[in-house]
Specification:
Two copies of one chain form a homodimer. In chain A, the strands form two sheets. In chain A, strands 1, 2, 3, 4, 5, 6, 9, 10, 12, 13, 14, 15, 16 and 17 form a 14-stranded antiparallel β-sheet that branches. Chain A has a two-stranded antiparallel sheet with strand order 8-11. The relative contact order of chain A is 0.15. The first copy, chain A, folds into two domains: 106 residues, Porin; 165 residues, Porin (Beta Barrel), CATH 2.40.160.210. The model of chain A has no long low-confidence stretch (mean pLDDT 92). By secondary structure, chain A is an alpha+beta fold. In chain A, 21% of the residues lie in helices and 39% in strands. Chain A has seven helices and 17 strands. The longest helix of chain A is centred in the first third of the chain and has 16 residues. β7 of chain A pairs antiparallel with β15 of chain B.
Chain lengths: 291, 291
């Protein structure tokens, strides 16, 4: 059992390419339903298990979501089994056989002598030790907006934020400044090294950054999640460097660069979403719904 | 028949969601085989036809390619028919029923009062009128590398470059300078306005930009193509603003921003690819293969 499979509670069903997992609280959104970051993380993890290669890219389309404790069946198929590159498809269905998410991607054996290089610049930020602990990215967003509101304990305790530690660094300089640029240092609460799967799990923050860029407090319903990965090392902290691109008619698009603590570009992620404007009271309503 | 369907030679089969097209020379790569940009353009076009909405995002996975004159069947399915947003799947198969490409995406009715904004800066470049005509992006790449080699006429005349006009502007300043940043003004040779589908067709240039950033002359085999679109207007010229991100072990990732001539951000596109290093002689070999 590798670390990704453990984190995600992935179990083999015994049939080739077939797995399952349960929508446990740490794999859920703040409302307890299946979190989009879980769907892409599961897709990356099973693609790597089935092909025994590392992930190059993965796009996960969110078709529907599942209530707490639902059992999700996951099927990974190799559509084009190349010598180095495998094109794969991963589908997640609920216990009624309804599609929850559909993924396409590729895994590969990297070529030791192949072209290699990084063409982006990391923002100059404080290291995790000097950054401000945040209970959740929502809390940070409220602080940015100058709103003195504490996200209730009950909301913080449920969902994916219970297994991720967030710290917000001061940005001293940015290679491409603009509206909504923001950064978070994130790590697993258990302090295990971060893989491509778990980085994708953590990077599902574009909707918030687009809303922030548009001058609103909000988030959104992710329509998809894409990760394009380089080589992950033994990094425990990653920098989620958010680059919102555009909002149009209530929909948004943006990217995230994912950096190691030593400043290596590990991946680029992107998302489209349907934007939702929040008010602080929505968090109170969430807390009441869960009490 | 809308303009995209005409450009792509898309015909309805009479069954709902089912279309077909022929791999004509202008929908092919320089070797005459199905061009990746055609696959994403067809996916965007049929998703819009079936849902009667505009495209938000589309990811097309390239599973295999088809020889010249092959008939490709295209099937568009709505996986999640929301009131505004439709999550769709599009699959292209050859005459043997083998999958050539698989796409996931979403279309939507934009909300007139929805959040709207653009958070990226356009490079300061010369307008199309003052830019240097290029017979193909490959020719420009060779010029950048200081190689005095004319891509043979026979190669220029086949493939997608016969329906696209390319001009390379001088970049006066760039919001995020770095290796491999380059820009092309492109338009349809028939000078029709550019849609999201045709922009995706034109934006399939990431492999070249990644190779260029890594200091190599080359291109690559696209593994996928993703577009995240805002609203397209009546623009005839678009600026393809290439932002290569990273190369690792012979694979590459990068993005493209697509701008209108008036400086509006129309879309962001991204790709992963398996990199290939070219030599000028490869173009000669292509020309000979087609003579």
């Amino acid at each position: 059992m590798n670390s990704d499979a453990e984190f995600l509670g992935l179990e083999s069903t015994g049939e080739p390419g077939r797995y399952r997992f349960v929508v446990e609280p740490h794999l859920a959104r703040h409302d307890g339903y299946l979190y989009g970051g879980t769907a892409i993380a599961v897709s990356v993890a099973v693609a790597e298990l089935v092909t025994e290669r590392t992930t190059l890219w993965m796009t996960t389309q969110f078709v529907a979501t599942s209530p707490p404790k639902e059992v999700i069946s996951v099927h990974a198929e190799v559509l084009a089994p190349g010598r180095r590159t495998n094109q794969v498809r991963v589908t997640g269905t609920d216990s009624n056989g309804v599609t929850m998410f559909a993924s396409l991607g590729a895994t590969a054996h990297l070529r030791p002598q192949g072209l290699t290089g990084a063409f982006e610049k990391m923002p100059d930020v404080d290291p995790p030790e000097k950054s401000i602990p945040q209970t959740s990215p929502f809390q940070a967003m409220l602080r940015h907006a100058g709103i003195d509101y504490q996200v209730p304990e009950e909301v913080q305790r449920i969902g994916f934020t219970q297994v991720i530690e967030f710290r917000e660094p001061t940005i001293h300089s940015h290679p491409d400044p603009g509206p909504g640029r923001s950064c978070f240092w994130v790590r697993r609460v258990d302090n295990e090294p971060i893989s491509a799967a778990i980085a994708a799990f953590m990077a599902d923050m574009v909707p918030m950054s687009v809303a922030h860029a548009a001058g609103s407090i909000g988030g959104g319903i992710s329509l998809d999640n894409t990760i394009r990965a380089a080589e992950f090392d033994e990094t425990r902290w990653i920098l989620i460097d958010m680059r919102p691109h555009i909002a149009v008619g209530g929909y948004g698009h943006g990217s995230v660069f994912i950096w190691s603590q030593s400043g290596r570009l590990l991946a680029q992620a992107g998302q489209s979403c349907s934007l939702i404007q929040f008010s602080p009271e929505d968090f109170t309503a969430m807390a009441e719904a869960q009490s």
